[in-house]
Known about the structure:
The protein is α+β, with helices and mostly antiparallel strands. The protein folds into three domains: about 15-125, no CATH class; about 140-200, no CATH class; about 205-335, no CATH class. It is about 30% helix and about 20% strand. It contains nine helices and 16 strands. The protein has helices spanning about 15-35, 50-55, 140-145, 150-165, 190-200, 230, 245-255, 260-270, 305-310; strands at about 45-50, 60, 60-65, 75, 85, 110-115, 125, 205-210, 215, 220-225, 235-240, 260, 280, 295-300, 315-320, 325-335. A five-stranded antiparallel sheet has the order 8-16-11-14-13. It starts with 15 loop residues before the first helix and ends with a strand.
Amino acid sequence: MKIFRPLWRDGAFLVPQQFQQQARWDAHVADTVSRMALAHPWGVLRAEFDASALTLSRLNATRLIVRFADGTLIDTELADILPPVRDVSDVMQDSVEVLLALPLLSASGGNLDDGQESARPRRWRAEQVTVQELAGHERSELHQDPSRHPELLYRELARLAGSLLTFSLEHHLEAIPRYRHASPEQVFPPLFALLDTLLEVSLPSRVIAIALEQGADREIWRGRLHDARLREGADFYLSVRSSLPPHQLQSRFPQLCKAGSHDDVAEVVNIALSGIAIKPLSHVPAAIPLRLENQYFALDLSTDAARAMLEAGNCTFYTPESLGDVKLELFAVLRS
């Protein structure tokens, strides 16, 4: 798989793919350097098994540190999950060769196990865990020791206010009062009031998520366009997840999916018309939530079918079984 090294610069829009490519490049550099010193820089560094489980014909690894030939390092003590216990009761030999393997990476994506059935094993599985901040919590330390200098508290509060100002359209940096040691009543009350205001600020969003309900036959998705702004000046985008490979979904979804109003889609499906034109996107609008496993498409609103959908105030999407196990999300991006 080709590695696209990201260009880090001020003002760049950051997405997870950039960090993935950077991690792949760093791993490639480490593997290249190791191969300069050794012809085969891979193998088993440590492998420990539960001896008591072996008496019960169960192979249970307790610790593994292994570097695979592709440079992937597995360390179950620091970062990785141990493989499941293997039943060896059906093995009749006195000794057996144990193999440790990883699923191959696919250059077209789909390497993350999302809980759905797949024709091939996936290498990665996501898990959310709560971790401790190693740097500590300065404000909690100040609370535990009230005798500390008030300027230390001011620094933390001012830093928090500065961070929150990023999300405010009405306040500026000058709203943070300067520190005056002789007049704390002119510093902390206005600063606390500013923080209260900033914590309640919510940015106006140009994106409206339209709820889609899947029918009992799992091929029909219906939504309602209640907001009048959707019918006056908005662009519509579909976020699609499917069990199909991404390149197949990009080409087949616009051809097979039928879009329009409730009444139009029923007629379109029955007489094999096209409905609203659907176009694949090479670049996702920044306002839309980006999901790595999804493909994105835009609805062509210049057609009569699109105008009929907006006038009806509802939308329907038909996704045949040939598109695989499909999940749809519909977003409207306001133009102003």
